[in-house]
Design goal:
The structure holds 2 protein chains of 2 kinds. By secondary structure, chain A is an all-alpha fold. Chain A has helices at about 10-20, 25-55, 70-80, 80-115, 120-130, 135-145, 150-160, 165-170, 185-210, 210-220, 225-255, 255-260, 270-275, 285-305; strands at about 55-60, 65. In chain B, the strands form 4 sheets. In chain B, strands 6-7-8-3-9-10 form a 6-stranded mixed β-sheet, sandwiched between helices. Chain B has a 5-stranded antiparallel β-sheet with strand order 13-17-14-15-16. In chain B, helix 4 (about 110-120) packs across helix 5. The longest helix of chain B is centred in the middle third of the chain and has 18 residues, at about 165-185. The chains are: A mainly alpha, B alpha+beta.
Chain lengths: ~325, ~325
C-alpha cells in the first residue's frame, strides 16, 4: 500500500496530528490558553489589585488602609505641591532622556541597519546588547565613580583644559550641582546610557524595513539628503522611534535606583513608590503614584498617534 | 544637436566585479532607447549611472552636453520609474505624485493642480486620496509614472517597469508608454531583459553582455543583422552554426531524411530530440550528426505533414541568403 510507506510516526501520534491539522484554529487557541492564563492572573491581576488600592485611603490616626472607595488619595497626589513637583520632575527627566536617546540612537541604528554588513553588523548588535547583560547595580555605581568630583571624567576634562566649562555647566540652574555625580545633568547622562540599547534596537529594526529604493526615489525626485531624512526616512522609522521611546520614557518614569545613587536630592516617582509602600506604609499613595506613569504613557501614545507616528505601520 | 545622454568610456566596478566596463554611447533627444541584456549584464548599472545613484569610477557621463560624473541625483533633470515602483507608503497617491514639486517648494495650489493633471493623464483622476497599498500593481505603475512625469524631466528612466505585471496588462502598458513618449517628446531610457518588449517599443536598442556593449542599432538591425553570437542567441534565439553564422528558426525547413536539398540551400541531417506545440507554430529541436542542437520553427499547418516523433531522422535546410555572418567574440 502506497499510504503505508509514509506512516513513519506511531499511529496515535499520527491520529492526533491529523486531528489538529484539520482544526487549526483549535490548535492555535490551545497553545494560547496557558500563557494567557499565566499572563492574565499574575500580571494583569496584580496590576488591577494595585489600581484598586489607589482608590482606597489611609486613616491618618491609625495609619491603616481603609478599604472604602474614595478619591482622597488622588486629591492628595494632585493638590500637594511636593507630590506635583515629583511628577513634574520625573516627567521632565523622562522627556529629556527620551529625546537624547533618540538623537544618539538614530545614527547608530542607521549605520547598523543600512551600512554595516556581515561581521561588522554582528559586532554592532552584540556591542549594543552587551551592557544589558551586565549587572544594573554595577553599572550605576560605576557611573557614580566616573562622574564623581575626583572621578575620571573630571580628570579627563581637566587634562583637556575644560574644567572651566564643566564648572560653568554645573553652575547652571536646574541641571547643575556640586559635582556631576550629584546633579540632574549627571543623572540624565546615566539614564541615557542605561536606556540607549532599548532605543537603538527598535529603531534599527524599523530602519531595516525601509527599502533603500524609497530613499533613492526621494533623491531622484529632487529632495536633498536633509529633505529625504525628514520626509521619508524619519516618518518610516517613526514606529521604531515610538517603540523605543516607550521603553526609555517608561523605564525613566519607573526607575528608583539611579535617582537614589546618582544625582540631585529631589525625589522621583519610583523612589516615592518605594518609600510609600515600604517605610511609610501608605500603599494607596504608592499605588496612586504608580498610576501616573501609566496615564502619562497613555497620553504620550495618543499624542504620537495623532502626530502620525504609526501611519507607516 | 547635443545628445541627451552621452557615455564616454564609462567604468563602474563593485569590488572585483566590473559591472560596466568601458562603455560609450549617445542617446538622442526624444528617442525611445532600450537597454537590453540578461541580469548582471550592466544595463541597470548604466541606468543608475544616468540617474546618479551610482557615480562612474572612470570615464564621463554627460546629460545635455554637461558632465554630471560627480552630480548627485537631486541635481539632475532626470526622473526614474522603479521596478518595484518605490511609492512612499506613508503618503496619499496625490502626495506621492506632488513630492518632487513639494521638495522644490512649489506653491501648494500649483502642486495640487499639476498633480491632479498628471493623475488624469495616467487615468487615475479619482485615486488621489488613496494610499499606495490600496492600489493594484498596474495602478501603482501609473502613479510611479505620474510622480516622475510631473517634474517635466528631460529624460525618463524606466527600470523594468512592467516586469511585475501580467501579460495582458503588460501589453496594454507597452502601448500606453509608447503613446505617452510620442505625445510628450521626452527621451525614454528603458531597461528590460525582455527582447520582445525592447524590439516592439524602441527607436534604438543597445544589447549588453558582461558589462560591455554587444551591439547598438535599430530593432530591425538587431534582429536581422546580429553582430555577435551572443546577440543572435539572446534576441530571438537564433541558431549559431559552427560559431560563424546565425540562422533564424523560421528560416529552416524540415523535410524527411534523404530528400534532396533545394537549389542554393545548405542541408544538414539529424535526429529529432523533441518538438513543442506553441500555438501558431511548432518548434523542432534536432541534434545534427556533428552534434549541434538546432531549433527550427514551422507554421502549425505545415507541421502536421512532417515528422514529429523524437528519434526520427529529418533533413534541415536553409537558403544561403539567410545565413548571418557573425563577428568573432
Amino acid at each position: 500500500m502506497a499510504a503505508a510507506a509514509f506512516a513513519t510516526a506511531s499511529r496515535p501520534l499520527r491520529a492526533a496530528s491529523t486531528f489538529f491539522f484539520r482544526r487549526q484554529a483549535l490548535a492555535v487557541y490551545l497553545l494560547l490558553v496557558p500563557p494567557l492564563l499565566w499572563f492574565g492572573t499574575v500580571y494583569l491581576g496584580s496590576l488591577f489589585a494595585l489600581l484598586a488600592q489607589s482608590f482606597y485611603a489611609i486613616d491618618e490616626f491609625t495609619a491603616t488602609v481603609v478599604p472604602r472607595l474614595t478619591l482622597k488619595t488622588y486629591a492628595q497626589l494632585l493638590t500637594q505641591p511636593a507630590n506635583l513637583d515629583i511628577v513634574l520632575r520625573t516627567s521632565e527627566m523622562a522627556i529629556a532622556v527620551t529625546i537624547a536617546a533618540a538623537v544618539v540612537a538614530f545614527p547608530i541604528a542607521n549605520y547598523m541597519a543600512r551600512y554595516a554588513r556581515g561581521r561588522m553588523k554582528a559586532f554592532f548588535y552584540v556591542a549594543v546588547m552587551l551592557p544589558m547583560w551586565t549587572s544594573y547595580l554595577v553599572k550605576v555605581y560605576a557611573w557614580r565613580l566616573i562622574l564623581a568630583k575626583e572621578g575620571i571624567l573630571s580628570w579627563c576634562l581637566g587634562a583637556l583644559g575644560l574644567d572651566g566649562a564643566l564648572a560653568a555647566l554645573l553652575r547652571a540652574p536646574g541641571i547643575g550641582g556640586p559635582s556631576l555625580s550629584s546633579s540632574y545633568l549627571g543623572m540624565f547622562i546615566v539614564f541615557v546610557y542605561m536606556w540607549l540599547p532599548y532605543m537603538i534596537l527598535p529603531v534599527a529594526a524599523a530602519l531595516e524595513r525601509v527599502p533603500a529604493n524609497l530613499l533613492s526615489a526621494s533623491a531622484d525626485l529632487g529632495a536633498r539628503p536633509s529633505q529625504t531624512f525628514w520626509r521619508v526616512m524619519l516618518p518610516l522609522a517613526m514606529p521604531g522611534v515610538a517603540a523605543g521611546s516607550i521603553f526609555t520614557f517608561s523605564l525613566t518614569l519607573g526607575d528608583y535606583i539611579i535617582p537614589s545613587v546618582v544625582g540631585a536630592p529631589g525625589y522621583f516617582i519610583g523612589m516615592m513608590v518605594y518609600q510609600q509602600q515600604g517605610t511609610a506604609g501608605n500603599i494607596p499613595l504608592a499605588a496612586a503614584f504608580s498610576v501616573v506613569p501609566i496615564v502619562l504613557i497613555g497620553i504620550y501614545l495618543a499624542l504620537a498617534r495623532r502626530a502620525g507616528a504609526f501611519d507607516a505601520l | 544637436m547635443t545628445a541627451a545622454i552621452e557615455f564616454h568610456d564609462v567604468r563602474r566596478a563593485f569590488g572585483t566585479i566590473v559591472a560596466v566596463d568601458g562603455v560609450s554611447f549617445a542617446i538622442e533627444p526624444g528617442e525611445f532607447f532600450s537597454m537590453l541584456g540578461p541580469s548582471g549584464s550592466g544595463k541597470t548599472t548604466c541606468l543608475r549611472l544616468i540617474a546618479g545613484f551610482e557615480l562612474p569610477d572612470g570615464g564621463q557621463v554627460r546629460l545635455d552636453g554637461i558632465d554630471v560624473s560627480a552630480t548627485p541625483p537631486y541635481e539632475r533633470n532626470v526622473n526614474t520609474v522603479f521596478q518595484d515602483y518605490a511609492l512612499f507608503p506613508h503618503m496619499s497617491v496625490l502626495d506621492n505624485v506632488t513630492y518632487g514639486l513639494r521638495v522644490r517648494r512649489v506653491a501648494a495650489p500649483e502642486c495640487r493642480r499639476r498633480g491632479e493633471e498628471m493623475l488624469a493623464l495616467v487615468k487615475l483622476a479619482d485615486a488621489g486620496a488613496r494610499r499606495p497599498a490600496q492600489l493594484s500593481g498596474g495602478q501603482k505603475q501609473r502613479v510611479a509614472l505620474a510622480r516622475a512625469l510631473v517634474n517635466q524631466p528631460k529624460v525618463l528612466l524606466l527600470d523594468e517597469p512592467l516586469g511585475a505585471l501580467d501579460l495582458k496588462l503588460r501589453e496594454e502598458m507597452q502601448l500606453e508608454l509608447r503613446g505617452l513618449q510620442r505625445r510628450l517628446g521626452i527621451t525614454f531610457v528603458y531597461v528590460t531583459h525582455d527582447q520582445g518588449e525592447a524590439l516592439s517599443m524602441s527607436d534604438r536598442v543597445v544589447v549588453f553582455n558582461r558589462g560591455r556593449i554587444e551591439q547598438l542599432g535599430s530593432p530591425q538591425a538587431i534582429y536581422a543583422q546580429p553582430r555577435t553570437a551572443f546577440v543572435a542567441g539572446f534576441v530571438g534565439a537564433a541558431n549559431v552554426i559552427d560559431g560563424r553564422y546565425a540562422v533564424r528558426g523560421e528560416h529552416i525547413g524540415v523535410a524527411p531524411a534523404g530528400s534532396p536539398a533545394p537549389e542554393g540551400a545548405v542541408r544538414i541531417e539529424g535526429t529529432i530530440v523533441d518538438t513543442q506545440y506553441q500555438g501558431a507554430v511548432r518548434r523542432w529541436q534536432v541534434r545534427t550528426d556533428d552534434d549541434q542542437l538546432i531549433t527550427a520553427t514551422r507554421p502549425e499547418g505545415e507541421a502536421n505533414t512532417l515528422h514529429r516523433e523524437p528519434g526520427a531522422r529529418v533533413a534541415l535546410s536553409w537558403a544561403r541568403a539567410h545565413q548571418i555572418p557573425l563577428a568573432a567574440d
